[in-house]
Amino acid sequence: MLWFTQIVGILILFVSSPLLWGITQTVKARIQGRHGPPVWQMYWVIAKNWRKETTAPEFSSWIFRIAPSVSMAALLAVLIMIPSSGQVPIGWPHDLLTVFFLLALERFWIGLGGLDSAGTFGGLGSSRTSTIGTGIEPALLAAFGVLWRVGGGSAIEPITPLLKASPGGTIAWSLAAVSFALLLLAELGRMPVDNPDTHLELTMIHEATILESNGRLLALSQLAMTLKLTVVMALGWVIMGPHFGSSWPNLTLLLIELAFTSVALGWIESRLTKLRYFQLPAYLSIAAGIGLLGFLLASGGFNL
Amino acid sequence: MTTTWKHQNQLHKDSGHELLTLTANRRGKLTSVWLDPDDHRQSFLDLDLVDGSFPSLAASLPETAWDEREIHDLFGYIPLGHPDPRPLIRTPRWPKDFLPLRSAQLSPGWLEVEPDLPALQVEGDGVTIMKVGPTHAGIIESGHFVFSIIGENVLHLDAHLFQNHRGIEALLEGKTVGEVSPLVTRICAADSVSNQTNWASAVEQLAGFIPSERLLLNRIILLEAERVLSHLNDLAQIPAGVGYQVAHQRALAMKELWQRGLQSLFGHRFLFETVHPGSAVSAPADAVSEIVHAVRRHWVPWRQVVMGHHGFTNRMRGVGTTPLDQVIRMGAQGVTSRAAGKEFDARQSIPWYGEVFEGPVIRTSGDVLARFELRLDEVEASLRIIEKAARMTYKTPFQDQPFTVPEDIDGRAVAFSESPHGLNVHDVSLSQGRVSRYHVRAATYRNWPLVAQTVAGNAVADFPLINKSFELCYSCTDR
User: Fold this and answer.
1) B313, pLDDT greater than 60
2) Section A105-118 average pLDDT
């Protein structure tokens, strides 16, 4: 039964990720006073690009061609580990640190692919992705550290049931949640860090790294982009969100939470402008600082 | 002779005159025309070429650098001592003997060579050369930008415009007065009315025709309507540069509303062919103020939201700053120059604007924010001017003024107006009822070199924002 719900959960999350992307886009369009494309648009875009011919820049190598697949694989590995219905039937490597390194691997390969595209914009995008990555990683570690201290281990499992007994843990949990929310925007290349909708190649971060991709490479990159959105949001909700005892209500709850987050993301993005590139370290330091504060609090004897 | 040319031009610049045009003709003569902003008088300075060359002014008057390069490319006259004698308009694909404004017959031909001109680049460790364009990701005109960057900082920008030279000046030569309007209207869609008005004023001046007050009021309404249209577009583009999509889309909606209004009032969304020598399209004052009110209903809340957005205003502050002395040195015009504190608006120097014009809007900080706020205030001022002029048309009697162009119309007139981008000048020579030389000097021509200078020292990622705050059109520059 555990295996069955887990597999259903994985499939649902995987299939619904372009839809969640579409929800955010639709919310943004409506706030701007536009109709916008249909919610399903991302499916058609991915399918269209998948059917197209794939070419690569003259001076690129095999790295450029496998980069989207590697980042896709890393995200799929994270997806498998997410206890979408509350529990995961597997033991090791079902671990927060593994997730951390898989996300780092994904970012690293996106950067490599951008560099290997042999274009100036790809290089610029890689440089920016890596720079932001160095800010994201300590902050993410701090947030995971809180979960580790509060949850008493680095396994990916809901920590909210453990909070009832500990007021200090609740504060630490709130700090971790805030830090994670700030990181989510940076990790997913959302406003105010990056603008996923821009056509201005000079301001791009994530988009610049896949600027030279087309055909299947582009389709894979886009699918990975939507999957990352789902995976990171699901990770946050499963660990830090509310939790039921049995599996099916948990899965339903997760889907509602994801839809809600997509709407919220669209709303937040419409309210913000992009930060100056040189102000991003400050933004990420705030996220890291909040996470670290939570970690210190959780380490100071409040843990269970 | 040579020293007087340099000396006289320098003297005019130093005494605060505005350079209207610097151009040549095929008879081997160079002329510069300066405008005295106080008494609105124009002074003409002439220079005869010696051995097909002339002394360059560019070293001491950098605003003439492009004019002289253009004269070299189109006439083949050589500016002696020019600090940057690279081709400006010529592409390597033009045959050597192809001089569009000098050759009697244009030799057709197109060499099969690389189109790129040599670019100024910074060399050294860690410097990356980034080429952008000429085809861009957005729906904009063609411009090739060669950035020398180190990390995220721009060290130098070499802008190669003139990718779509249409040869309008050469096309206009030999045309009769009646054939000019359709071409002049289409020099640029953003400054169309300004171009049409210049042409009409030049012809009327040469024909000795005095336009009635009502005709001039109608022209003022059209000129200001064009300014509102262009500024609304620019105000929509600046938020897009920092991803503020809500402000971007809402402003575009206002622009669309305005354009539909223009279509219903004057018959064209871009106001093409609305001003002709001796006439201008007019609309009933009630209908005009109705459209103005319709836009204001969206404008007032939009302005409040945008200027109340801390993230947005903070993003514009201190970015892309142009100091006043540089603005004056480069002869910059329009929004760019007034945002840095230069108190010049060509409308001051156009007598028929009269009391309708409230005086120039000035900001002093010279950054993106100043240019944004300046446009906000100018839109409101233009809307007020439109309403005022529309009311005044009621009071002025309608006179039927038949205008016929004299068969033998002859002479030279320099007409100018304040286009949405700044001082826009037409230098028109007619002989025996036909155009013998037509020179267009758009405001953007003066401002482009300044954009390149401003960007150096800023972050690469801020270039779109800075560029959009200037929002210069390419087609006025590259006629």
Assistant:
1) yes
2) 91
Boundaries of CATH 3.30.460.80 in chain B? 2-118
10 Å CB burial of residue B210 (0-12, 13-18, 19+) is exposed
| CB contacts, 8 Å: B239 with chain A | 273
| Amino acid found at B478 | D
Selected residue of B132, B136, B144, B245 to mutate for chain A interface (largest A Cβ count, 10 A): B245
The verdict on a CB contact (< 8 Å) between B245 and A278 is no
Beta strands in B120-207 (DSSP E): 127-132, 144-150, 153-160
Q: CB–CB of A52/A222 below 8 Å?
A: no
Facing residue for A273 by CB, picked from B130, B243, B250: B243
Q: Does ipTM top 0.95?
A: no
Ranges of each domain in chain A: 2-302
| Predicted model pTM | 0.90
Distance from CA of A280 to the nearest CA of B (A): 12
Question: Measured between beta carbons, which residues in chain A are less than 8 angstroms from residue B320?
Answer: none
How near does any CA of chain B get to the CA of A151, in Å? 37
User: Which pLDDT score, from 0 to 100, does residue A304 have?
Assistant: 43
pLDDT at A229: 93
Q: Does B63 touch chain A (CB under 8 A)?
A: no
For the B2-118 domain, the top CATH level (class) is alpha beta
Dihedral pair phi/psi, residue A18, rounded to 5°: -65, -30
B168-470 has which CATH code?
1.10.645.10
Number of separate helices (H) and strands (E) present in chain A:
11, 0
Rounded to 5 degrees, φ, ψ at B304 are -65, -45
Average pLDDT, chain A: 87
pLDDT score, position B2: 65
Centre a 10 Å sphere on the Cβ of residue B423 and count the other Cβ atoms it contains: 27
